[in-house]
Model the fold of this input.
Amino acid sequence: MGLFDDLLNRRKEEQEAKSSNRLPPGQSLTSKFPVLTYGPNPRFDLKTWDLRFFGEVKAKPGASHEGEVGTLAAEAYQVWNELYWERNPDKAITNASPAFQDALRTQAGTLDFGKREEALDAVAALIQSPPETKTVTNDDPLRWTYEQMLSLPTVKITTDIHCVTRWSKFDTSWEGIRFRDFVETFLDLDPAVKYVIAHCDYGYTTNLPFDVMMDDDVLITYTYAGVPLEPDHGAPVRTLVPKRYFWKSAKFLRALEFSKVDKPGFWEKAGYHNDGDPFKEERYGGRRGFF
Done:
């Protein structure tokens, strides 16, 4: 009866969402977070990782940044993701620096975790309540290390997301850097810029109009549901563009390009719609590429 009741409740919720125009046409609700990635998840080293901004853009004259960050924050995010790569959670912990191990032992009372979930909880607690902080600076707003990025002001939003493969998930919670705030604070754009192209690991790209990216719910994000992004969902950093199908929220982000001309990305060239508005059901374009 439990499974049947769940199905009935989901159908009822779907009907209510459709009646209120909250659920886009052709979509079905899910309580899970399906994983859809073309190819393997990239493994990364946050000591050398960076996020770049290029194209028709310069740093604003005199723009710089100074902010606070947990002394071990970047390493904690690294260990969080290593826990998904290593079969044995203790190996990910023992590979961390002595300073990180000491801080984790103080916080959790142990370094011996029987299950990955226990280790993840301990690392998340260390991120949320860092024992020490430090000041970091950046005088080059076109390039950000992971630690510098973590020191930027963030916002939290709760929003619905919609995948082109016909699932929708309501009330997802994210934290990250509002794209519009970042642009207005640090960047000097050519007035002719009309598009933003996200560049990701493995050469993946996706494109969006600049005015869509400037909506107040568009983020450069590294936190989902109160904890760091995991590899399956785009770690270490992704974009979040809720008003478009979810392939437009680029996983494994490495750079953002500002362009005067449109540059369709991987799925757009393969036949997906160039705009991808779920409420207009813009799933596919005029041609279907290799699909």
